[in-house]
Amino acid sequence: MKQPDVLVRVDDRVRLMSAVLAATTWPDDEQRDDPHGTHAHARATRKLVKEFSHHPAVHAMQVLLEQGAPLEAMFTYALRLSWPGLESDDVPRWVPPRWNEHLAHFYQVTGLEQWWADEADEWNEAVEGSEKVFAEVSFHDFLEPFIGPVAERFVFIPNICYPTKKELGTRVGTELFCIAPPRLAWGDSPPWPFDEDPAHLYRAALSQYGRMLILAYLRQYSDRVAAVGNNSLPVGDEFRKHYPTWNEQFAALFVMGAVALFLEQAVSKQEARAYILMERKAKGVTILPGVVSVLRRYLEGHAEGRYPELVDYLPNFPKHLRVAKSITTL
Known about the structure:
Elements: E1 6-8, H1 12-22, H2 26-33, H3 40-49, H4 56-66, H5 71-79, H6 99-109, H7 112-118, H8 120-134, H9 139-147, E2 153-158, E3 168-172, E4 175-180, H10 198-220, H11 222-228, H12 237-242, H13 246-266, H14 269-283, H15 288-303, H16 310-313, H17 317-324
Helix pairs in contact: 4-6, 10-13, 13-14, 13-15, 15-17
């Protein structure tokens, strides 16, 4: 039986970090910034761990959050720990002392093992819905014309706990992880089931895998990219503020353009247009239709043998994007 292109799984180390996050101020911060309905499991988990807000594991995470540490780093750290021992021979300098021991103790005193067993139906539903969505897609095949064969394995972890409105991407060994919540609904309504909006999962997963892969690809060809980087990209000041370097700007544009192309192929042109409109409204990325046009131009040249891979096209990208900047529709 052929292995699916995206492996869907639940990981107790991820669930543990989500439960610790539930005991910090993160849930309140999320609601203050953008009020929304959350999954019943997330709300119940928060209630379960509420009395442990002063636990050393929670305190350490709270301090890291207040220092601006990214959640991606914390979840990556957790995924590199053994389970259930939560041990590691390679601990980053930023990790609080004995955090793994505190996390193990938090797991024990909160009764998370039994809690997850009691909530197994909720997690199984998230896994089964996600597997259904990813059953027929191949991100590896889609990305190969751009960056060549991708050796890494794609893993998707549906997250019905915290964070509730942000997906996380992380690399551990030869696996690329996307940890993603279900799509938010309107107002206080509970989020959608994972299998009711395939486009949401495609966008979330491909955005994370694509970002990690394209940044690694640019590093691989750093000398050639550096020569192209002197030619600025036609993006606005706000975009430059969020993505200060040429590599970051290109990676962000590439990922958004690739997602739009994939949605067009895997779902519909209408879904791709809806995504482009959403990015324009949410992030002010008015240039995205032009990016899609330029990536299509590359793929045509690639199919004709003029560009073996994306790095061969990079010198043309800024110039062609300027020409395509006025394009407003697919």
